[in-house]
Amino acid sequence: MAFEILLLGAPEGSESSLKSFLRELPYDFSLPVVLVQHAEASMVSSCPLPVSDVEDKTLLRSGYLYPAPPHYQVLVECGHLGLSLDEAVAGARPSIDVLFETAAYAYADRALAVLFHSSHVDGKWGIKILRNYGAYVYQQGIETVSPLVGAAQSSILQIVQRALEASETETRTSLLIRN
Amino acid sequence: MALSLEQDTNVDFTAVTASEGRNRKEIEDIEFSNLLEGIYQRYGFDLRELETSFLRRRIRGLLQRENLPSISALQEKILRQPKSVDALMSNLCSFEIGLFRDPEFYLAVRQRCIPLLKTYPSLRIWVVGCSEGDEIYSIAMLLREEGLSEKSKIYATDIHQSAWELTQERFLDDVEFDSARARYQQSGGTGDFTRYFANRSDLKRLDASLLENVVFGQHNLITDQSFNEFHLILCRNHLIHFKRSIHHRAVQVLRNSLVVLGFLGIGEKETLKWSQQEKCFEALQPNLKLYRRTL
Question: Does the pTM of the predicted model rise above 0.80?
Answer without folding.
Answer: yes
